Amino acid sequence: MKFLDREKEKRELKAILSGEPDVVYFVYGPINSGKTALLMQIFEELPEDYRIFYINFRRVETRKYEDFVRAMFQPRDESFWEKFAKRVDLIKAALEYAEKLLEKVNFRFELPSRVIREFFKPGEKERDVFRYLEILMGELVKKEKKPVLVLDELQMLRDVKKNGYLLSDLFNFLIGMTKETHLCHCLCATSDCLFIEKIYSNARLEGRARYVLVDDLDRERAYKVYEELGIEDKELVWNYVGGKFGDILGVLSYKRRGYSEREAVEEMVRIEAGRLKHLKLFRLADTEMREEIWEVLKIFCEKEVCRGKEAEKVLKKGTFWIRENVLFYDPVRGEVRPQGRIIWKAIKREIREEEGNVASCA
Ligand SMILES: Nc1ncnc2c1ncn2[C@@H]1O[C@H](COP(=O)(O)OP(=O)(O)OP(=O)(O)O)[C@@H](O)[C@H]1O
Ligand SMILES: [Mg+2]
Fold this sequence. Notes:
The protein is α/β, with parallel strands linked by helices. It has helices at 7-18, 35-45, 65-72, 78-85, 90-101, 113-118, 129-142, 166-180, 193-200, 219-228, 234-240, 245-256, 261-283, 290-296, 299-302, 308-323, 341-355, and strands at residues 24-28, 50-56, 73-75, 105-106, 109-111, 146-152, 161-162, 164-165, 185-190, 209-213, 306-307, 327-330, 335-338. The longest helix has 23 residues, at 261-283.
C-alpha cells in the first residue's frame, strides 16, 4: 500500500540522521501507530551513502545471547569467504568480507558461520559482537559512508543475559557509538510503554538518549488520510477509529469483505470489548485487587487523556492495563490514555453495560 502522510515525522527523523550522531534515539508510540512503516519509508528516502542496519527482534525468538547473535548476524556463502579468509586477522578479513556485501539497507549483518562462531567464545574481547560492530562502523565512516543502526522491538531483549543483562552491554555500546565516538546513528523502536518507562528512568541513559513519539494522527491529518483511502463517513470513522493507521487499514479490510463503514467500526469495537471482557473475567479473576484495577478504567469514561496526579493514580493501580496494551503510558509527557479510539469506545461500552446506566458514560 502507498505510504501516506508523516511528513512532519519524516522531516524530524531525517534531520536527526543528517547530523553527527550524538545521542541514542528511542522511537516510541502506541501500538499500530506506524513506527515500523515510518522507519522503512525513511530508509528508502535517505541518500545512497547511508548504510542502514535494521534488525527487528520480533521476527526471531530472542531468549538467549545465542538468539541475539543469530538475530543480528546471518551466516552466508562460505566459498566467497575463502578470498578473505587467507588474511591473518580473522576480524579484519570479516570486515572486508562484510563491506563487500553491504547494501544501503541491510536486515542483518552477513558473515560466514565460522566468524559468527567466534562471537560465542568466552573471554575473547576482540571477537566480541560489539567490538566487531564498532570496528565495522569505523571502517564505513572512513569510506565516507553514514552508518545507522536501527533496533526495532528492543523490548524483546529485556530478559536476555550474557554474564549480566545484555541490554546493559548494548546500551553501553550505543552510547559509545553516539556520544563518545560519533560513528553511527542509533535508533531503537518499541511499542512497549513500560519498557520505555524503564529506559526513561535508566540513570546510565540520562542525558544520552532522546525520545521521538510516533503517535496516531490528529483529526486534521486523519481526515486527509481518510480522503486518500476513499473513506466516506469521516466523522464516524474518526469517532470510532481515530488516527491509528493499523485500525484505519482494518476498516478498509472489512469494507473489502463487504461490510459498510458502520458495520466495520461496530465489529472492531465488538472485538475489543470482547477482549476487555476476557481480561476482566479470566485474567483479573484471581487477582486480589480486581475491583480496584477495574475501577481505574472508569476514569476514561469522562476523558481520553490523564495527566499529573490522575495519571499517577492510574499508574499506581492500572499497570495491568498498560501491560495488556489497553492503556498507553507516555513517560516523556507523563500522560496515560487508551491505546486507541477503538479500545476507548470499548472501555466506555463495557463500563456503561456494567453499570446499566446509559447516561453515566456516553
Ligand atoms: N504512513 C503510513 N501509510 C500507509 N500505511 C501505514 C503507514 N503507517 C503505518 N501503516 C500501516 O499500518 C499498519 C501498522 O503500522 P506499523 O506496523 O508500522 O505500526 P507499529 O507502530 O510499528 O506497530 P507495533 O506497535 O505493532 O510495532 C501496517 O499495516 C502499516 O503498513
Ligand atoms: Mg513496529
